[in-house]
Amino acid sequence: MRFKETQRFRQPWIWLLVILTALPIYWPLFRQADSSPKGLSVVLLILHLLMVVLLLLTRLTVELDKRNLSYMFFPFHLKKKRFALSRIRSASIREFYPLKEKSFFGIHASTSSKSYHIKGNWGLQLEFTSGRFLLLGTQRPEELKKVLSELHIPEE
Predict the structure, then answer these.
(1) How far is CA 98 from each of CA 64, 95, 119, 122, 139, rounded to the nearest angstrom?
(2) For the chain, which residues make up each domain, given as ranges?
(3) Which residue has the higher pLDDT, 83 or 33?
(4) CB within 8 Å of 38: residues ≥ 6 apart
(5) Residue 148: enclosing H or E segment and its boundaries?
(6) Helix (H) / strand (E) containing 84
(7) CA 44, 10, 68, 155 torsion: positive or negative?
(8) Does residue 33 surpass a pLDDT of 70?
(9) Does the pTM exceed 0.70?
(10) Does position 117 have pLDDT exceeding 70, yes or no?
(11) Are strands 122-128 and 88-95 parallel, antiparallel or unpaired?
């Protein structure tokens, strides 16, 4: 059994926020059509465009097969993080609340836990034999739960 899921930032509210933050940046540039743009306007324009590119490029990929779990939160990870299933003490599908759990822009890290998510509030909670925890967001919790069961990964 194999599971693969890729998520991207495609929520309408995020893009509405991007557009609303763009208005105060782009409006002065349009008003300055007769003269060259001011330095701060150009810097803000570049930063805004970089944010848009980052949102377009960001993706979370989670893969699970009979031997390994791997994930990549691109562009923050440039290669997959891979773990043998034997290193997983327990796994469960759980509902979580990103703002309550301080997981902003899809990332949270502390000394003993990490979480990565793009949208929604369902995740794969893993506890490793090392005592560390990892939460990976999913939009397909039922399918993932079935795969975990078929791979005989212990539940919490």
Answers:
(1) 23, 10, 9, 10, 14
(2) 8-57, 60-150
(3) 83
(4) 28, 32
(5) helix 141-150
(6) strand 81-84
(7) positive
(8) no
(9) yes
(10) yes
(11) antiparallel
Token pair, residue 30, equals 């349009």
Q: Stretch 140-151: mean pLDDT, rounded?
A: 94
Nearest to 126 by CA among 105, 106, 99, 96: 96
Taking alpha carbons only, the member of 133, 42, 30 closest to residue 89 is 133
Spatial separation of the C-alpha atoms in residues 137 and 120, rounded to whole Å: 7
Q: Is 124 exposed, middle or buried (0-12, 13-18, 19+ CB in 10 A)?
A: buried
Distances (CA, A) of 80 to 60, 63, 67, 68: 10, 10, 15, 11
State how far the alpha carbon of 112 is from the alpha carbons of 4, 19, 56, 121, 135, in Å: 26, 37, 30, 21, 12
Single-letter amino acid code for the residue at 153: I
> Tens of pLDDT along 43-88?
888 888 898 998 899 999 999 999 999 999 999 999 999 999 999 9
